[in-house]
Amino acid sequence: LVSICILYFFTSYVDHDDHHNAYRRQSKWCVRESAEDEFDEISIASRIFVAELKIGNVTQWVIDPIEHNMDYAGLSDLAVDSAQDSLNIIRSVLANNPSAAKDIVCLNAGAALYVAGLADSYVNGVAMARKIIADGLAQQKLNEFIAKTQSFKAV
């Protein structure tokens, strides 16, 4: 296995009021992963080995693109030669076109949704990411972002 990096670190403080008894709880979440493909990120080129620390408990699990009905793909399938090529890939992903790029976006967005607490599991995070793209919500957010940034006046 190759180098291991900390992918996500999430700390939340939640104030609770239980019949006037206020207390504070701290949750710490750290995910470390490594891949068989010599990269230290979630990819579609191989399985990814995960060690997850959540509220003092460590669990180990594997992200396998095959288990998400995705094919392994070489990272060369994601290579671009220009900004226009990159934009075309982004547009294709947001248009919900099947591709290695869409798969890697869903795997990584699924991790972000899970770690942010918006999904109760990594698997459900990937499913949410797919649905957000398929329903056009990701494209809608990008359009809103573009409209907002275009509304700024040059200084």
Strand content: 25-35%
Order of helices and strands: EEEEHHHH
**Arrangement of strands in the largest sheet:** 1-2-3-4
Q: In total, how many beta strands?
A: 4
Taken from the alpha-carbon principal axes, the silhouette is globular
Contiguous low-pLDDT stretches (5 residues minimum) are 1-28
Mean pLDDT rating = 79
Helix percent reads 25-40%
Q: State the secondary-structure class.
A: alpha+beta
First-to-last CA distance: 49 Å
Rg calculated over all Cα atoms: 18 Å
Largest sheet: 4 strands, antiparallel
Helix count equals 4
Secondary structure topology:
Elements lengths: L4 E14 L2 E15 L12 E7 L2 E7 L19 H12 L5 H16 L6 H13 L2 H14 L5
Antiparallel strand pairs: 1-2, 2-3, 3-4
Helix pairs in contact: 2-3
Structure description:
The chain has 155 residues and is of the alpha+beta class. Helix content is 35%, strand content 28%. The chain has four helices and four strands, in the order E-E-E-E-H-H-H-H. The chain has helices at 83-94, 100-115, 122-134, 137-150; strands at residues 5-18, 21-35, 48-54, 57-63. Helix 2 (100-115) packs across helix 3. It is globular and about 50 Å long. Mean pLDDT is 79; it is low at 1-28.
Characteristics of this structure?
four-stranded antiparallel beta sheet; 155 residues; 28% strand; 4 strands; alpha+beta; disordered N terminus
Quick gist of this model?
It is built from 4 helices and 4 strands, in the order ββββαααα. It has 155 residues and is α+β, with helices and mostly antiparallel strands.
